[in-house]
Amino acid sequence: MLFGSLLLLLLLPHTIIEADTDEDLLTQSTEQVIEPRYRIVLNEWENMDLDGTAPFERAVPPSSFEQADDLQLLPESDSFGYDDRVLYWHNNETVEFEVEVDQTGLYEIGFDYYPLGEMIMPIEGAIQVNGEFPFFESRRIVFPVNWENESDEFEADRFGNDIIPGQDPIQSWEQLKVEDSNHLHSRSLQYYLEEGTNTISLSNLRGELLIGNAYITSPEEVLEYEEYISQTDGSEVIDSLHVYEAEYPSYKNSSYVRPVATHDPSAVPYDSRNLLLNTFGGESWTESGQSATWEITVEESGFYYLSLKALQNHSSGAPVFRTIYINGSLPFEEAEQYRFRNSSSWYNETIGDEAGEPYLFYLDEGTNTVTLIADASPVERVLFTIDEVMSGMEELSLSIRKLTGNQLDANRDWNLSEYIEGVDDLLLEWADMLEDEADYLGGLTTGDDSTDIVTLQIAADRLRTLAKNPDEIPGRLTELSEGSNSVAQLLGNLIMEVQEQPLLLDRIYVHGEETLPDPEAGMWTKFTSSVTRFFQSFTSENLATTNVEDDVVDVWINRPRQYVDLLQNMLDQNFTPETGIEVKLSIMPEEQKLVLASAANTQPDLALGISNWLPYELAIRGAAVDLREFDDFNEVGNQFAPGAFLPLIVDDGIYGLPETQDFFVQYYRRDIMNYLDIPIPDTWNDVVSILPELQRYGLNYYTPIAGAVAFKPFQTTAPYIYQFGGDLYQEDGIGAAIDSEDALRGIQFMTDLNTIYSAPLQVPNFYNHFRYSTLPIGIGSFSEYVQLTAAAPEISGWWDISPHPGVEEEDGSVTRWSTGSAQTSMVFDGSGKTDEAWEVLKWWMDTETQTEFANSLLTLYGPEYMWNTANLDSFAQLPWPEEHKETILEQWEHLREVPKTPYAYMVEREISNVWNKVVFEGENARSAVDDSMVTIDREMRRKLEEFGYMENGRVVRPYTIPTIDMVEGWLESDG
């Protein structure tokens, strides 16, 4: 079957064709950029004529590692009790060791290790065998860090609700058998070693640790349940009942798997008024591989039953899975991939077989450990199939776009079957594959349909519909791969959904034949609790915006509850005891309420987390405090990038502080770019020079303009104008300046990228295309950084960032101006507590506070809660990769946000209109700009008259356009 010139698969493993001519591109066999998945390679190895590997274990001490110098090899005195020399492993270092095996076969690799450093972000490495990555999963190996609560008791906040305790990493020697970092394979990874000497390389990707011995062992045999029981024949079932509250694990391998407050009378303990941390896991315990361990103490050695009071009401309706370890080992095969059914109510799950016969677990007298590991490995085959189908669909779509020239005429018919033979059979084959996986999932759910099964069936039905009329596919690509409701979108969403493994636990029972307590509270208890809570809701304090006492600083914050709870606790524990100033935080229902509250004179004293345009809008109406009036403003202001203040300025006043800060940097896939030998561009000229080579392989370069829809905001357009030396406004503020020669050059290049150089016109989600390699390079923001860090572990260590491309000047420097404002904060005028509000704001934006807040968010809630503080000193201290922080801080030196004017919205809209006219209608750029200038001028005069800068068409008061030089001068002179 021929699929045009597609050269890159959508999902890993990716393939690239190396060719010199168009004919070669169509016919030459593929070479891999990224190795095939472990599933494929393991299957090939197992089909080889290999004798079973005899029991084998060999330890290699660090002193035998090659490329390990005296600086890396630490003496025994610095080994933290390892009783031998150890290796200090960090900073992208690679070490090698040789191992000789007696027999060709499959082996497991392990390490003794001691974690060091911040440990908030994962410690990652990569393993090569004899100079090659044997499979893709070997490119990322995670060294887990165990965490424990700072305190064994939960403290209460000002409302009487339990506070999630801080987390401390446990620094101790651990042993790891190398596993798939996504934990989609239930057993340790196996490596093929030839008889004789083999070289194993361990490369550092992120983090630091000490390494002790490396181990090469034959795969471990796991007993079946009957064998397990027979090994301890003669032991009896101990008659006892031990109850453990699940919210108190001894440790877990993820800091953000946490106790949960469940306001349900069936949970123990329960309080109708206050939120108690009375359960464990839930939505914080969804990622495969996350584990929690509880210590269990029994008075007598023998067999016990293990039961869990669980709630598993995942919205998909699918079951979830856990693997159960006893005292650090898998006791028997049946304890692997154990299924927890979906239920809307609590139930006691006694671990047992499908017939309901409970399993017995042998426990020693004294302290034992029970570990539960989230396990998505039962759905690994489903994910693999979805990947395969999505790869094929992207291949087909790219072939069709090349065939049609990406310019579809609704009045033109295509005989697609003549150009792409067998396309209907291919669609039907994909439909069959998806239906097979739907049947497989049906077996896991024991007959109850889940939304995952329904999604697979819908996708299969749509493929069959398209297969009926394959010649119509060019006009129906939105149904196949490009629309928000396409088959590709359905499957893409399902990839994330099907991996989630949430499980909420209330209690753990270790028992004999005793009857367990009922998991659900009685109907009368539930009814009385509901009534009590209803009446208490009228008197209980919460985070709603309400009137506060005169001596309390009223702060409205536009952030989710997790952020507000954490900040309120920090204020109560640190700020108020030090200053004596009481602070009450309230969650802002919506930003527009600030404008209404200001008009009604019910505004707060301080607002946090608001959009960067709000301080200007309120300040120009006299509702905000000029922060330059405070004597220590320059000391505070120098913590931020000067360009971030520009939208917060009215005349000579600064009416807000940057709180968080975005960044636009260049993201690139190192693996793809290195394989294709394409240099990473530094300037726009460099970008233009690599575009033909990228496009030759069906790839492209992403710009934020493609991520916007019909309207292109300033953050996507202003950088081009600034980088080419233009400006948006006249120096006196009376009118736009987008018709200047420099501004026109920027606008022309901005449109040329799409009209001449064929950069993508629309990309709904750069993250997905970057992750799946169809857009291996482009300009992204903080949002992409969080997504790639938190939700793309399979390419961790194989992507990087560099500064935003810019325009090279005559002296060789590069102008890289880009926008970057995110959220901001402001003090309200007229509240009577401006000094106290300023003290709160100073404390909040202080380096120490911002660093503590950022680290606490990451530790308690995970990488999706990365905090992009605008405080430059604090940002430099965050536990992000050092090389990434350096790049972002370098780009922030070129931060130039767009100043606000009363008519800024019209300038923004008209630049967007110019782009649309030039790109879609083929209009001349200068002509389009001239037309827009007329519209802007008309609106400018109307708005400047409204705010008293013009009268009857004459300027009566100058309007100052702030500049970075102006801000820097203020910060130097104030105070």
Automatic annotation (TrEMBL):
Organism in which the protein naturally occurs: Alteribacter keqinensis
Gene3D superfamilies: Galactose-binding domain-like, Periplasmic binding protein-like II
InterPro entries xrefs: Bact_solute-bd_prot1, SBP
One Pfam family cited in the UniProt record for this chain: SBP_bac_1
Record has Signal as a keyword: yes
UniProt name for this protein: Extracellular solute-binding protein
Top-level taxon in the UniProt lineage: Bacteria
Keyword annotations from UniProtKB, A to Z: Signal
Signal peptide: 1-19
